[in-house]
Amino acid sequence: MTMGGIKDGRYNAAVMISAMLQVDPNKAQFDMVSFDGSSSVQKAGQIIVAQFQMVVVTHGTEYVGSLFLTQIFRDPQYQLMSKFVQIVRFIPEFFATFLLPLDFVISS
Predict the structure, then answer these.
(1) Could you tell me the pTM of the whole model?
(2) C-alpha angle 32/11/9, rounded to 5°?
(3) Largest CB tally within 10 Å, which of 15, 24, 27, 40?
(4) pLDDT in tens, 63-85
């Protein structure tokens, strides 16, 4: 995009269609494209459907997914899993920060 250009529906569709054609030049493998609910991407979805006629475009799915996951993570088992992941995700950082430099000092 040139400086000062507008990212409207046509621009968004051109970017998406270019990427989709690289993956599927025969226009036979894509069946769904999902966007947020803004008007510019809704227009892009209409343009994509004109090019890829097997595609169904969905809008606003991030909000629905968020609502779904909010309901799921109210279950006690998933809350426990969430706590476990929050604790475990720092283990590689701990090793990289504290133990690897210590090992380097000891072996030198």
Answers:
(1) 0.54
(2) 65
(3) 40
(4) 878 888 888 888 898 889 888 88
Cα 52 to chain centroid distance, Å, stands at 21
Is the pLDDT higher at 72 or at 4? 72
**Contact of 53 with 24, CB cutoff 8 Å:** no
Tell me 28's DSSP state: -
Reported for 40-47, long-range contacts at CB under 8 A and 24+ positions apart, including other chains, are 40/7, 40/8, 40/9, 40/12, 41/9, 41/12, 42/9, 43/8, 43/9, 43/10, 43/12, 43/13, 44/9, 44/10, 44/12, 44/13, 44/16, 45/13, 46/9, 47/9, 47/10, 47/13, 47/17
Residue ranges per domain, the chain? 1-62, 73-108
Distance CA 108, CA 25 (A): 56
